[in-house]
Amino acid sequence: MLSMALITHTYAQSPTERRKQMADSIRKVYLTEAAISNPLLRQATVSMDIIPKSDITTFIKGNKLYEGKLRQERISALFNIPIKTWGNNSVTATVSYFQQNLKLSELKPVYPELAQLDG
Q: How many whole angstroms separate alpha carbon 113 and alpha carbon 66?
Protein backbone atom coordinates (compact mmCIF):
# COMPACT_ATOMS: atom_id res chain seq x y z
CA MET A 1 0.00 0.00 0.00
CA LEU A 2 2.84 2.36 0.83
CA SER A 3 4.51 1.84 -2.55
CA MET A 4 1.29 2.73 -4.36
CA ALA A 5 1.06 6.00 -2.45
CA LEU A 6 4.60 6.93 -3.46
CA ILE A 7 4.00 6.10 -7.10
CA THR A 8 0.83 8.14 -7.31
CA HIS A 9 2.64 11.26 -6.03
CA THR A 10 5.56 11.21 -8.45
CA TYR A 11 5.36 12.74 -11.91
CA ALA A 12 7.62 13.35 -14.86
CA GLN A 13 8.23 16.74 -16.38
CA SER A 14 6.52 17.36 -19.64
CA PRO A 15 8.72 18.14 -22.67
CA THR A 16 7.55 21.77 -22.50
CA GLU A 17 8.66 22.10 -18.86
CA ARG A 18 12.06 20.55 -19.66
CA ARG A 19 12.61 22.96 -22.58
CA LYS A 20 11.71 25.93 -20.39
CA GLN A 21 14.13 24.75 -17.68
CA MET A 22 16.90 24.29 -20.26
CA ALA A 23 16.22 27.73 -21.74
CA ASP A 24 16.40 29.29 -18.26
CA SER A 25 19.72 27.55 -17.60
CA ILE A 26 21.17 28.74 -20.91
CA ARG A 27 19.89 32.29 -20.28
CA LYS A 28 21.57 32.27 -16.85
CA VAL A 29 24.92 31.27 -18.40
CA TYR A 30 24.71 34.12 -20.93
CA LEU A 31 23.75 36.65 -18.24
CA THR A 32 26.68 35.51 -16.07
CA GLU A 33 29.12 35.90 -18.97
CA ALA A 34 27.68 39.33 -19.79
CA ALA A 35 28.07 40.46 -16.15
CA ILE A 36 31.71 39.33 -16.14
CA SER A 37 32.53 41.30 -19.30
CA ASN A 38 30.40 44.40 -18.55
CA PRO A 39 30.92 46.19 -15.20
CA LEU A 40 27.58 48.03 -15.45
CA LEU A 41 25.78 44.71 -15.03
CA ARG A 42 27.61 43.89 -11.79
CA GLN A 43 25.46 45.69 -9.26
CA ALA A 44 26.39 44.04 -5.96
CA THR A 45 29.25 42.21 -4.27
CA VAL A 46 29.16 40.65 -0.80
CA SER A 47 32.07 38.83 0.80
CA MET A 48 33.00 37.40 4.19
CA ASP A 49 36.49 36.54 5.43
CA ILE A 50 37.07 34.41 8.50
CA ILE A 51 40.63 34.31 9.77
CA PRO A 52 41.15 31.57 12.38
CA LYS A 53 42.90 32.11 15.69
CA SER A 54 46.46 33.33 15.44
CA ASP A 55 49.04 34.33 18.04
CA ILE A 56 49.24 37.99 19.04
CA THR A 57 51.81 39.78 21.21
CA THR A 58 51.41 43.43 22.21
CA PHE A 59 54.27 45.76 23.05
CA ILE A 60 54.10 49.29 24.49
CA LYS A 61 57.27 51.38 24.23
CA GLY A 62 59.32 48.23 23.67
CA ASN A 63 57.88 46.41 26.71
CA LYS A 64 55.74 43.33 26.30
CA LEU A 65 52.20 43.98 27.60
CA TYR A 66 50.34 40.72 26.91
CA GLU A 67 50.07 37.80 24.53
CA GLY A 68 47.13 35.68 23.45
CA LYS A 69 45.02 34.57 20.49
CA LEU A 70 43.17 36.73 17.94
CA ARG A 71 40.30 35.67 15.67
CA GLN A 72 39.03 37.97 12.91
CA GLU A 73 35.81 38.14 10.87
CA ARG A 74 35.28 40.65 8.06
CA ILE A 75 32.10 41.31 6.12
CA SER A 76 32.06 43.70 3.19
CA ALA A 77 29.39 44.68 0.69
CA LEU A 78 29.53 46.95 -2.34
CA PHE A 79 26.48 48.13 -4.27
CA ASN A 80 26.64 50.06 -7.56
CA ILE A 81 23.57 52.15 -8.33
CA PRO A 82 23.26 53.61 -11.85
CA ILE A 83 21.95 57.17 -11.65
CA LYS A 84 22.04 58.61 -15.17
CA THR A 85 23.20 57.38 -18.58
CA TRP A 86 23.51 59.40 -21.78
CA GLY A 87 25.34 58.25 -24.89
CA ASN A 88 28.49 56.44 -23.86
CA ASN A 89 28.59 58.25 -20.51
CA SER A 90 27.09 57.20 -17.20
CA VAL A 91 27.02 58.34 -13.59
CA THR A 92 26.79 55.77 -10.80
CA ALA A 93 26.72 55.91 -7.04
CA THR A 94 28.56 53.33 -4.99
CA VAL A 95 27.50 52.33 -1.49
CA SER A 96 30.01 50.40 0.57
CA TYR A 97 29.66 48.59 3.91
CA PHE A 98 32.48 47.09 5.96
CA GLN A 99 32.35 45.39 9.36
CA GLN A 100 35.25 43.80 11.20
CA ASN A 101 35.04 41.77 14.41
CA LEU A 102 38.12 41.00 16.46
CA LYS A 103 37.97 38.47 19.29
CA LEU A 104 40.83 38.22 21.76
CA SER A 105 41.12 35.07 23.86
CA GLU A 106 43.61 33.23 26.04
CA LEU A 107 45.18 36.54 27.15
CA LYS A 108 48.25 36.27 29.37
CA PRO A 109 49.31 39.62 30.87
CA VAL A 110 52.99 40.17 31.71
CA TYR A 111 52.32 42.50 34.65
CA PRO A 112 50.28 41.20 37.64
CA GLU A 113 48.35 44.51 37.91
CA LEU A 114 46.81 43.73 34.47
CA ALA A 115 45.22 40.48 35.68
CA GLN A 116 41.73 41.73 34.72
CA LEU A 117 42.80 41.18 31.08
CA ASP A 118 43.32 37.48 31.75
CA GLY A 119 40.94 35.58 29.46
A: 12
